[in-house]
Amino acid sequence: xxxxxxxxxxxxxxxxxxxxxxxxxxxxxxxxxxxxxxxxxxxxxxxxxxxxxxxxxxxxxxxxxxxxxxxxxxxxxxxxxxxxxxxxxxxxxxxxxxxxxxxxxxxxxxxxxxxxxxxxxxxxxxxxxxxxxxxxxxxxxxxxxxxxxxxxxxxxxxxxxxxxxxxxxxxxxxxxxxxxxxxxxxxxxxxxxxxxxxxxxxxxxxxxxxxxxxxxxxxxxxxxxxxxxxxxxxxxxxxxxxxxxxxxxxxxxxxxxxxxxxxxxxxxxxxxxxxxxxx
Length: 279
Hints:
Elements: E1 2-5, H1 11-27, E2 32-35, H2 40-51, E3 56-61, H3 63-73, E4 79-84, H4 90-93, H5 99-106, E5 111-119, E6 122-124, E7 127-131, H6 132-142, H7 149-158, E8 165-168, E9 175-178, E10 180-184, E11 188-189, E12 193-194, E13 206-211, H8 216-227, E14 237-242, E15 244-247, E16 253-256, E17 259-263, E18 266-278
Parallel strand pairs: 1-2, 1-3, 3-4
Antiparallel strand pairs: 5-6, 5-18, 7-10, 7-16, 8-9, 10-13, 11-12, 13-14, 15-18, 16-17
Helix pairs in contact: 2-3, 6-7
C-alpha cells in the first residue's frame, strides 16, 4: 500500500493517519508513506515510480493531493482510495459518504472506473476553470492559512472588481468575454459550491459552464444562485457538454482541482475510465 499525504496537523488528517496505521498493524500490511512537497513535478516523478510497485494508492488529503495522485496513476493498474482531509474536499463531496464509509472503502472489494479530464499533458479529476475561478484560486493560494470559507471570502472580494476574460474555443460558439468558464468532471468546486449538478464521473463528457453576467446585480444574482445550485436557470449562464475543446486565447491562467496549473492556449478533453476508485 502506498499512502500519499500532504503534511499538515489538521485533526481530521491526523485521525485518518492514526486509523490507517492501526489497520496496517492489525492486518500486518506493508505501507509506504509518501509526504508531498511544494514541487509538483518532482513529487509526480517520484510517485510514478512508486505507483509501478504498488496495487493501491491511498490519498489522505484534499483535491490538490488527489490531483497529484491522479496524474501519477493514469496509465497504471494501481487503484485509488481516498480519505478526505483537505480544505474543500470537493471531489469527495459528490459521493456523500461518511468518514466510516470512506475508511471502509480502503479495504473494500467494490470498485468503479472513473473518467478524468486533461489539459494538454496534465490530468484533472474534478473541475478546471478559466477566468474568475482561476483568479480566486490564485488569491486563496497566496493566503497563509486556508479554510473552507477562504474561497467564499476571496470570491466576494473579487465579485465586482474582476474584469473577466475573452475566451475563444476553436470550432465552437464560445467566442466572447466571460466572467468564468468551467469544465467539470465532478459536481462541486470552491469548498462546496455545486457548479455542475448534472456532471458525472462515468459518462465520458465534461460539463461546460459559461458564466457571463453583464452587471453588478447580475453578478450578485449569479453568485447567490450558485450557492444554492440554481444558477443554470438564469440567462447569463449557459451549460453544455463535450469531449474535446481547443482554447486558442493565449495567456489565461488555468486552475484545476483548486491549483493553478498553467496558462492557455490549451487542449482540454476527457479520458474515459482512466482510474479505478475503491468503494
